[in-house]
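User: Hey, quick favor. My workstation is busy. Could you predict this chain's structure for me?
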Amino acid sequence: MLVALLAAAVGGVLWWSPQRLLPHGFTSFLPGVWAAPAFAVLFAISTLAFVPKPVLNVAAGALFGIPVGLAVAVAGTTLGAVLAFGLGRSLGRDALRPLLKGKILAGLDRRLTDQGFGSVLVLRIVPGLPFQGVNFAAAFSGVRFRPYTTATALGVLPGTTAYVIAGATASAPSSPAFILSTAAIVAVTVLTLAALRRARRTTPPNAGEPA
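Assistant: No problem, here it is.
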């Protein structure tokens, strides 16, 4: 059922057509005070459909500017995380927890359970970690709902801010705000690639083979 619901979210977003998120698309058929809340809901559903979150953040900045765009992006991100957490906790946790026998998975489960807020906060801040991967890892662990939600809202702020500013100032690529936000995004990308390369080098060749 969990897989079916996620597949339905993917199908719904593809049917609705993601290019409507672009300027003069979304707000053209839903203007006024309802545009921002509706976009936050669409943002959340799109994360369930595995639409890349940076794309949604840039769209939020392009559509609503920096202050409102940042609020909408954080709200949509948090709502999407809550939806994924609820689905994973109610539909997938009992089925998958018996499979958490590996040292890495068991260690992650124990850390999320014992240090929920701090662990989720770090996972949200660290660049390069899949958004939905963190959502379902938390759902399948014993982390409580409130620390998970609070840590998510706080942890996504740095990265979300950079992408929202980039989207809001894309029409003025020579502006200091656009240059700084782009530099931050590039720096995060480089750090992510470096971390992945380091992890690949330090992983034993037979780490994934059964004992």
